[in-house]
Model the fold of this input.
Amino acid sequence: MTSEIKADKWSPASGTSATIGDSGDTYTIPSGVTLANSGTVTGLPASAISSGTIATARLGSGTASSSTVLFGDQTFKTAPSGTHVKLLSGSASSATNHDFQNFVDTSKYNYYLIQVSNARGMGTYSPFSFQARTSGGPETGNNYNFCYYGYRSSGNTTYNYGENQGRSLLGTSITGDADMPSALMFYLVVNPASNYGGTHGWGINWGWNTTNQDLQYGTFTYRVNYTGTTTGFRMYADSNNATTFDYAIYGIEK
Amino acid sequence: MVDYNNIITPNGVEKVEITGSEKTQLEADRLTWNNASGDRKLAHIKQIRLEKLKETDYLANSDVTMPDNVKTWRQTLRDLPANHTDEAAYDALLARDKNGNLTHSVWSKP
Done:
């Protein structure tokens, strides 16, 4: 049975309140119908909006675009730049060499922050070594300049300087004791515009040697004197022992 | 011993066995590292010795007199490399107790 009510105005029978239908009823507004509102609708829950897209102009002031973000003051502002973007992260399983590859994108980043933690298995006083990588493999020529300075809590200050070697050391005397894994953090700078010396960096490491009750830290800088297109790097323990560690690589937006 | 390269890229991780010339070079490098174990320990001993000698360097000043037993001890420290020539001896010199203190009597200042 169908019926139709035609009226110019509908009002409560008494007072100022009225109810439409009962719980569970469905009222359908056909396509093409326009709901004109010259007043204010209150009490409509956000959960009742279940389809369609709310216009960005309804979310805040300012200009919404692919380069702006909505802040808490309901204003669209230019997206922040220069942030750290995580490019790679995970736990490296046991392997002799670890090749971090294809994360370099110099159109977006010249600076990369590499964090290594929970490193184990390198052997006593076996630091990590670093080699720059191109798409063809690690650079193994004697094109690395590096220097590092370290201190060992056993009462010995060490100073070392490397020149024209086939790799750079990432710190001094780092160890991989099972009960106190070592860690390091360093920057890798890849700047093709600077040609020679365009791949370089600096960082710090720490380690613990249980046998000698020896806490160590080291700071280091390095430079790769080559013209290869750096696409990543290789890291390995100087003892060539298999190693495991956790890693994260961040690109710093230009 | 099987050695691997971990190839870690934004697309995932691939583990590749090291073979051929790379394996040959790796084994040579590993042998060199292992053969240098004694040299590394001796270098550590020399670092400790240097610190011990520094502790009594002031006794060589002209306004103080260095006791004979200290002179003898300093000479013993200088003679360590000559009188300790194998890794077992190096290990004995580098031995420490659970608190990290060197246990060999040669390190104790008279």
About this structure: The two ends of chain A are 69 Å apart (CA to CA).
